[in-house]
Amino acid sequence: CGLPYDIYLAEDILSDPSLAKRYRTIVFADMFAIGPRHRKMLEMLKSDGRTLVFLAGTGAADGADATTFEIVQKEAPQDHAVVAEPGVRETMPSLCDQEAKRRYLGEKLAAYWRPRRISLVERPGLRVKARFASDGAPAVAERQLPTWKSVYICEPGGLSPQYFNRLVREAGGYAPAPAGVQVDMNAEFLSLH
Fold first, then answer.
1. What is the dihedral of CA 81, 73, 53, 130, to 10 degrees?
2. Backbone phi, then psi, for 189, in 5-degree steps?
3. 3, 35, 73, 178: most buried, per Cβ within 10 A?
């Protein structure tokens, strides 16, 4: 994706909030329940022009309101194909799409894996970036708030390198290369591939 990145557990940031304060874009994955401690952490991060990206299922069990989005869960089988809105340049993929499932899981396993589909409720102030092809429900959306930006991506694998690169750049984060260039670096060395 052309970006350096670090990986932390939510517990790491709950233990030491200063870890997250230096980042302009933070991606939350698999945080299905947003309890009081996680909610407090999110409130602390909603400032300074930061972008918070919530991946598939974040808040699905409890606390979706902390993301600023209202989500809807539909039982399988649902069509997971995602189509970018007109004017959106970045790819908006879905690893739950039948073709992607066959490609990554193989024919037999793909036939049995039928995850729930999560979509967003379309409300004023929501900038939809991609929709589900079958019913037009929002699959990727952004909400610009006074001091931060909230992004929700409903599909596993839906955060493409190109889209992630753009979100980081817009938030003022360090993006030494365009998407598609591998970046390896530490404090004294930068390698672009």
1. 30
2. -145, 135
3. 3
Strand duo 127-132 + 148-153: pairing? unpaired
Residues in the chain: 193
The 3 state secondary structure assigned to 114-178 is CCCEEEECCCCCCEEEEEECCCCCEEEEEEECCCEEEEEECCCCCCCHHHHHHHHHHCCCCCCCC
pLDDT digits (tens, 9 = 90+) for 135-177: 899 999 999 999 999 999 988 778 888 888 889 889 888 777 6
| Contact (CB, 8 A) for 82 and 128 | no
Q: How many CA atoms lie within 13 A of 80 on its CB side?
A: 27
